[in-house]
Amino acid sequence: MSKAKKIPLTGDQAVAYAMKQIEPDVVAAYPITPQTAIVMSFANYVANGQVQTEVIHVESEHSAMSACVGAAAAGARTMTATSANGLALMWEIVYIAASTRLPIVMPVVNRALSGPINIHCDHSDTMGCRDSGWIQIYCENAQEVYENTILAVRIAEHKDILLPVMVCQDGFITSHGVEGVEVLDEQKVKAFIGEYKIDHSLLDIDNPVTYGPLDLQDYYFEHKRQESEAMKNALKAIPEVSKEFEKTFGRKYDFIEAYKLDDAEIAIVAMSSTAGTVKFVVDELRQKGIKAGLLRPRIFRPFPKEKIAAALKDVKAVAVLDRSESFSAEGGPLYTDIKAGLYDSGIKPLVTNYIYGLGGRDIFPADINKVYSDLQDVVKAGKVKTPLNYLGSRE
Amino acid sequence: MAEKKKTWKEIPIGGKITEAGNATKYNTGSWRTFRPEKNEKKCINCLLCWIYCPDSSIKVKDGKMDGFDYDHCKGCGICASICPVKCIDMKKEIK
Lengths: 395, 95
Prior knowledge:
The structure holds 2 protein chains of 2 kinds. By secondary structure, chain A is an alpha/beta fold. Chain A has 2 domains: 5-249, 3-Layer(aba) Sandwich (Rossmann fold); 256-391, Rossmann fold. Chain A is built from 12 helices and 15 strands. In chain A, strand 14 (350-356), helix 12 and strand 15 (388-391) form a beta-alpha-beta unit. Chain A is globular. Chain B has helices spanning 48-52, 78-82, and strands at 34-38, 58-61, 64-68, 88-92. Helix content of chain B is 11%, strand content 20%. Chain B has a domain at 40-95: Alpha-Beta Plaits. The interface between A and B is medium-sized, with 23 and 13 residues.
C-alpha cells in the first residue's frame, strides 16, 4: 500500500470527495442544511469538468429521489444526499427505491426533524426511516464518512443485496468540522467499485421491462419477503465486501466497533460522533481503574444482533444512548432493538436508556461520566431503577 | 382460478415484470359477476362496444362484432349500456 495522502476536509467535503472518485452516472439532489456543502462541493467538481456525472437539479427532495429511482432503473449508478426535512419530503420514494431494489447511495447528514424547527444534529431523521428497507451506516468521523461512502456503493450493488444505502454522519459536528482525512488513490477506488451493470435496464428496448407495476394481494407479499431476505443476506455479504476493502486499502470495518470492551464491567452503546467523546471518557476512567467500555454499532440496518450480544456478553450493566426519541414511551430505537436482540441470546446485562443530544444539544464528557457513574450504581444495586433517562435535558 | 402462483424465490425481485405483454396471462375474467351476452339478431355491428370496452375484450372479425374475450372481460357492463340497439344483456355469472 502506498503512503496515504492526508488532506483537511469537513465531513460534507469528505462525502463530495468520495463522490468525485466514485463518479456516479447520475446525481439528483436538492440542497438542505447541513447537507448543502455536499451538493455544493460536488457541483464544483462537475463545473470544473473533473467528473462527467449528469447532475439533475430538481425542485424538491421528493423529485430528487424520484429522479434517482428513474436513473437507477435505467441502469445508472445513482447518488443523492439529504438531511432531516428533506428526507421526510422524500419519504414516499425512499420506500419505493428500496422495494424496487435500486442500489442508490444516499449520504444523510443527520439533523433534527421539525418541529419545532431546528437545523442541528440528532438522529430522528434516519431513525424515522429505519424500517424503509435501506441499509444504514452511521459514521463516527470524516474519515469513516469518506470510506463508507465508497464501501456503500459495493454493498448496495452486491448481487445478493441490491438495496439502497444511507451513509449517516452527524450534522455540523462531523459535516462542518474539519479533520485530516486520508484519501485513497482514485484509480484504486475506481477499480474497487468497478462498473455497475444492471440486470434489467428500463432503457433496454430489445428486452423491455416494467418497473413499478401494481402488485396486489397475490404477489406483493412475496416481493416484501424478497426484501427481508435481501436484508438478511446483507448480514453475510457486507463482511465479504469489507474484507476486500481491507485487503485493498488497509482499513478494517465491522458491523460494530468494540472499544476496551473485553474486560469491561460497564459499557455505553453509542453511535456516530458521540462515540469519540465516550472513548475519551473511557480512557480517563481506565486510568482510575474503572473497567468502562464502549460499543459503537456502525451498521444499524441490518441490525447485527449477534455481534452486539457477543460484544456485551461479559458486561454487567449497559447504557444505550439514543440521539432520537421514538415516542413509544418505551425508550429510543437503538435501546429497544438491543434489548430485543439480547432476549434470544440468553445474555442479560442490566440495560438502561438515555435519550440525549436532541436538536443538537451538546454532549459533554461530564454527561458521559454521569452515565458511567449511574451504571456503577446499577451494578451495586443489582437492578435498574430508572430505565428511561434524558441526558442533558433540564429537569 | 386454479393457476399455481410462484414463490418468492421464483419471481424477479423488486416487482419488475421482465416479459413484455404478459398482462394477457392475467385472467381478469375471473373477477366477473355479470357476463355480457349478445343477441345476434339485433346487433348492427356499429362497434361502439369495441370503442368503449376498457379492457379490449370485444372481439372483432372482418369488421364485425365477434363476441367477447371472457378471459379478460371483467363484466363492467359498459358495452351493454352503450349499445344503441340494446343487443347486449348482462347475465348473472354462474360458476
